[in-house]
């Protein structure tokens, strides 16, 4: 087990929770970072983050405001005038839920914190093959950001972004989470509801299909649970 601290970006969703479980297996000390950026389900995601942090007994947590992303707008997650599109699991275009360059904003904060903590890794639960087509969730983006870190931090700094789920499908992530006993019951993925997950936004659809393909019951409550395997 690596004795250097690691920072995990924890949104409160399933992917970040499973990533946290992987990081907990690989590092003795974890620090969790969460960002509020004016998203529709900001309070519910924050509660999920707090529950996951308690589960892993993480004492060093940082919740930051990236409210400028809401002020900039351009996403159905942050602009109430842009409706959240219904799920289209066969689409290849960038969906309305994309928050422009959000991951770069979050990673910049994480790397600043990593320098102070002496952390050697920043874990991100990005998924390329089974994501919603976000350009800042691709492996090439994280490879490029690793180069930015190398060039933009002190010479004795050695921080690497790790994306252990990047090439997995949602079904594989579910199975990994079950295997690692990740607290999936504490997670929240819905883009637009905070009480019952809607079941019909892109994030709900990808998550539900993953659980259905894995043959595992999703433990969170839904308003409806469509069958996304047929």
Output the helix-strand order: EHEHEHHEHEHH
Counted beta strands: 5
List unreliable stretches of 5+ residues. none
What is the CATH H-level superfamily? HUPs
The level of helicity is 25-40%
Structural class of the secondary structure composition? alpha/beta
Numbering strands along the chain, what is their spatial order in the largest sheet?
3-2-1-4-5
CATH architecture: 3-Layer(aba) Sandwich
- What value does the average pLDDT take? 96
CATH class: Alpha Beta
Query: The CATH topology is what?
Result: Rossmann fold
What's the main sheet like? 5 strands, parallel
Radius of gyration, in angstroms, nearest whole number: 17 Å
Number of helices: 7
Give the overall form: globular
The total domain count is 1
Q: Could you tell me the strand content as a percent range?
A: 5-15%
N→C terminal distance: 42 Å
